[in-house]
Amino acid sequence: MKDLRPALVQAQQGHLYRRRRVLDSPQQPRLVVEGRPLLSFCSNDYLGLAADPRVSKAFHRGLEHWGSGSGSAHLVSGHSRAHHALEEELADFTGRERALLFSSGYLANLAVVTSLCGRGDTVIQDKLDHASLIDAARLSGAGLKRYAHNDMAAARQRLAAARGEVLLAVDGVFSMDGDLAPLPELADLASQHGAWLMVDDAHGLGVLGAGGRGSLAHFGLDADHAPVLMGTLGKAFGTAGAFVAGSEALIETLIQKARSYIFTTALPAALAEATRASLEILRAEEWRRERLASLVARFRRGAAEMGFKLSASATPVQPLIAGRAQTALAWSRLLEEQGILVTAIRPPTVPKGSARLRITFSAAHEDRDLDQLLAALESLKP
Ligand SMILES: *Cc1c(COP(=O)(O)O)cnc(C)c1O
User: Fold this and answer.
1) How far is the CA of 368 from the centre of ligand 1 (A)?
2) Any catalytic annotation for residue 203?
């Protein structure tokens, strides 16, 4: 048995050690963290639904009806009427034949990639794709070919050289940068090369496109362009879990083959009831997306005036690149001293030399919250 401590000490010395904070309040802009009030700009609760009373009430009603546990995997006896109804509503929302619920986005990505590809096949990905897509490709046994971020010439080369069944998998909105994948170009490339296009829209659904239908809707694309869509429920939906939406044949294939679907317990049915309520709000309340857009526009104007270099992001994910991990930590500490919580994002979550503050906005943020953030950013001004 090796001594685990030297590696931990080394991570600490490299400013890469990670520590959890203990929240004493619900997930919302105004948090209590370890007993102290902090204004948060780092959650993925983009629409402010994680503590919405209507969603909580649906959760309660679900608990009263269904109890707390689902009892087993979906294929044994864990698939309730509530799960089933949510799947139908998600299929309708995304304009696809079927949707299939998963316990997390990580598991959904493992399911898709390992079910569609295996040894002799090729998975092509953007270098900044989410870790779960990369792990999924590794687990599948297919060859993993990555291309430089949003470099379409490089993506084309990868596709031209690919063997076997080919899956081109990308984040719709890149999670740490907030920019979009050029989905129309990727859809063209995939169709020219007979490849599947899969979009992981964890940060686009609920936020982008008419009715919150996500990155594909933002570009006017549909299931013909990207036959595999993955969405998570723990971000804009404010609950937990994930889904894959696609054709009847795709969903049946996942049910038959995907080990991360078959061998895991179904989410609580009550959570499916809560998510049905949040889906309804997400579709109906356009003002939440308008609110986000105006917060983002005001933030970008204010930060640019202070001389910060902004990324090419029009989404609620707005990184300020610090470079060194140590600098990102120092920035985060300076904000925290002023009552603002933005955790530093460091390698390996982001490439070396690009440690950052990943500032995110929620429709629940008020104008005075943004004023407070901009005032605090003065202390980090370049
Ligand atoms: C959060 C995220 C996931 C994982 O989803 P979970 O439900 O949190 O496991 C997958 N892909 C992307 C792009 C994400 O941001």
Assistant:
1) 30
2) yes
